[in-house]
Amino acid sequence: MNTALTDTLDVVIDVGALSFQDVVDVARRDAKVRVSERSLEAMATSRSVIDGLAADSRPHYGVSTGFGALASKQIPVELRAQLQRSLIRSHAAGTGPEVEREVIRALMLLRLSTLATGRTGVRPLVAETYAAVLNAGITPVVGEYGSLGCSGDLAPLAHCALALIGEGDVRDADGILMPAGDALAAAGIAPLELHEKEGLALINGTDGMLGMLVLAITDLRALITTADLAAAMSVEGLLGTDAVFADDLQGLRPHPGQRDSAANMRNALIGSPMLARPAGFTRVQDAYSLRCAPQVHGAVRDTIDHAATVASRELASAVDNPVVTEDGRIESNGNFHGAPVAYVLDFLAIAAADLASMSERRTDRFLDVSRNHGLNAFLADDPGVDSGHMIAQYTQAGIVSELKRLAVPASVDSIPSSAMQEDHVSMGWAAARKLRRVVDGVSRVVAIELLTAARAMDMRAPAVPGVVTGAVVARMRTTIDGPGTDRYLAPEIARAHAMVIDGSLLDAARTAGGELV
């Protein structure tokens, strides 16, 4: 993952124009951001509405009242700037392990995107300062715990807002921990003096959970294709059949994800000598973990696509409360509720956990002499003296068991807060945090399947794999030795995992002619 600052990428923050790739580029590649003139003009227009209300004696939530259960408290004009500072300071109440840099950068970009819609009522200076902090590589320190996923990701966003006013802790572009005021000064950024409504606008959004959703979808899209490749190699290494992946058979159940996964598996296995049936062959069907891989993988693909639809809608949203409407009204609303995002975060965790579960079952088949069709027990060089991949499967099993626990939905676990004013919350932040662990776990399970399948295919020599899968094995052999006596296995698993994450195994398959989507 490249976290070095770069001048080669540029993301323009404009109304409703942010893409998945923009989020990834800013979060992971430190792309520079700038706010469009159209957005700055829209912000100035809506700010004039807030300025017109600042001295109004009538209550306006977030402008002249307290927050949450304290919304009935009218705040005197002379205390309204203090109200915004106090909001940020009190809501920056996170705790626990430090949240990853890429998540915080995604969160900040998405909050900036909402500010740029002109619906939040903040001054253009607020957005320009936010963009300057992002471009300087300054990352506020945010604890993992604090958000209930309703009224926005309040605590995480508050820690980011705290940095904008020169308070709290941050890490600079080199990852050095320091006070926010020092980091701003070093970057030549003046701390913000918050005006009416601006503190609330900085913290009232689903940006943290949405940022993690976009990153997870990006990773899962690559991982599901890698899982298709792994399944194909397992079919090949276990002397299965690719006949069940025929396009006309898949068309009888026209789910688009199933179609794509089956096509990937066909294309990976095309022309493989290992799939030829010798005389007297009697096995007519493969086990479900092989035969039904397109159905399960395809369902994961369709779930990812559904989640992407929800995320795309959220990227085009202006999430704040209250908002300034196009006709100049300031209105309270419930758009900050994270339910739409929380549900798909949980849905993805369920689907991804099941993907890993099937991968582990294919690995286990390689190790059992009653099911691996002629290979040594546990793929050991000398079974008994050597244990082969016995414990690699244990590692998979431990991860899969953990993923099943993480698949339990967070979004059904609402808990009331703010003296029952906020009596139903989404827990979307928690759903996003556990999904990140799920994605990491699945990538490790798939890596072990690939490692095991490659070893099995080598052990079938002089039989050789197909061109596409053979290229994948060859790529693995550049850093991982082939079958032999037992050796330190953890580094090999780590190297296989690195090749899953960096996409080099998919690149090898595609370079060899594999048309993988």
From TrEMBL:
GO terms for molecular function: histidine ammonia-lyase activity. One of its GO terms (cellular component) is cytoplasm. It holds the Pfam family Lyase_aromatic. It is found in: Cytoplasm. Keywords: Histidine metabolism, Lyase. The keyword DNA-binding does not apply. It is an enzyme of class 4 (lyase). Signal peptide: none annotated. The keyword Lyase applies. It catalyses: L-histidine = trans-urocanate + NH4(+). It comes from the Bacteria. Its EC number is 4.3.1.3. PROSITE patterns: PAL_HISTIDASE. GO terms for biological process: L-histidine catabolic process to glutamate and formamide; L-histidine catabolic process to glutamate and formate. Pathway: Amino-acid degradation; L-histidine degradation into L-glutamate; N-formimidoyl-L-glutamate from L-histidine: step 1/3. PANTHER family: HISTIDINE AMMONIA-LYASE (PTHR10362). Belongs to the PAL/histidase family. NCBIfam families: hutH (TIGR01225), PRK09367.1 (NF006871). This is Histidine ammonia-lyase. It comes from Amnibacterium flavum.
